Amino acid sequence: MINVTVEDKQEALMVRYLLGLATKEERTQVEERYFSESEYFDQLLTLEDSLIDDFVTGRMPVEQRSAFKEAFRMRKGDVRFARALIQGVTQKKPDAPITAGFVNPIPAQRSLRRTLSESRFSLAIAIAALVLLAISLALAYRSQLLRNRLSDSEAVLSQLKEQNDDAQERLRQEQSLRESSARELEIERNKRIAADSRLQKIERPDSPDAFSDVVSVVLSAAFIPRGTGIAREIRVAENIRWLRFEVFVKRFSKYESYRISIKPAGQKTAVERTSLQAAGAAPTVVTTIPAKELKPGDYILTLYGEKTGLEPAELERYSFRITN
Amino acid sequence: MDDDAFEEFLLRFEPQLSSSGERYLKLRAKLVKFFQWQRCVDPDGLADEAIARLLNKIFGGAQIEKPWAYANAVAQNIFKEYLRSQGRLTQLQDDWDSAVEEPGEFVECARHCIEQLPDDKRSLLEQYYADEDGREAMARRMGTSLAGLRTRIHRVRAEIRSCYLRCISGSV
Known about the structure:
The structure holds 2 protein chains of 2 kinds.
Chain A: H1 6-18, H2 24-36, H3 38-57, H4 62-71, H5 76-90, H6 116-177, H7 180-203, E1 214-219, E2 232-235, E3 242-248, E4 257-264, E5 271-276, E6 284-290, E7 297-306, E8 313-323
Parallel strand pairs in A: 1-3, 2-8
Antiparallel strand pairs in A: 3-6, 4-5, 4-7, 7-8
Helix pairs in contact in A: 1-3, 2-3, 3-5
Chain B: H1 2-13, H2 20-37, H3 43-59, H4 67-86, H5 96-100, H6 104-115, H7 119-130, H8 135-141, H9 146-168
């Protein structure tokens, strides 16, 4: 009889939840528990890592693989990361086990009844055959290595070419979009948003529903991009606790998702948000950041386009200044 | 006053953590993971929406008895709204093989980040992945459980992942 412990049952439930195989009651149970118990939440995260590792290394049971692919179809980036990590740590591809080659057995030693010259000749032939075989194997291995390197280089070259094409296309799009009427339209729209916000404050000064502690920052080509010496100034009063950045991405509609990174001018990235989806008729990518994460100073917000299998492509940069 | 109300909410939500920043990040992480596990397209955006609604409730003066239950309820409501707006989930093309086969520079980024680790963490990682069948024995030698070992590995992976994302975006 197999003794199934409480821990085993709990782990099995977590695996069903992560693979999307849990019943409605089980999902409710798990969700209530991880919202209220951080230790349980941490266990789910570590188990999730183990599931991804098992999938990548080929250790996942066949009956779970389809469910895993369905559950993680939006998160192939996580699987790619695990694969790169395991390959980086172990120095070999995780699901391509190294198989040993076979070497032909040395011919059996000749009988003592054979003449001496015949024995020596046969042994010489055998040794020569072995040497030739070893040389052939070494050449074949080296050839495979070179083919792999060539394949990798071709893939990198192809990617660089595509990035170059994207960059040139972006340049053409930017040049056509700098028409003054489009810029004026954006400026007017933002004035309207700012006026609405001020009106709301005047009409309901004490209302907590007015989101009076949130500043919306709308960014688009209407605001002069980095390099021209002019930065958008954002005044953050003491009561402001959230900054909501809205970036128009209509010109960059071919990307699956977007990334926003914000960094102080001349320094490393302070804030980063990935896998953002555009929404709305505009369309717009939105992210909200605690105001205390951005102290007064000059910043650069960079918008990236994300596509499966490719490095994020830089699309646009905006400079802004936070003041009190 | 609103600051105090939110601080108190966070404190009751994650009492074992030592700072408001850590509590906020934990709350946000749980919300993001909830929407990821529901297979939503924009888990970060939906988590931001959930936090905005929590703030709205707190700053409205509401007394929330069980912060974790309320956060769960807000997340569930947002998910239902998401399902209504999305309709039937889009069927994505299943191109797993090409989608997860990483370009060489992703592996190089992973190696670069592993090399940046302190020796003890790098050694831990190497031992963990060198012998998949020996992890229980490894945990016993370290004086911990398999779950405890996995938790340590998860933290090291999180550290590497942060570096890896910066590397593949060209920031490192």
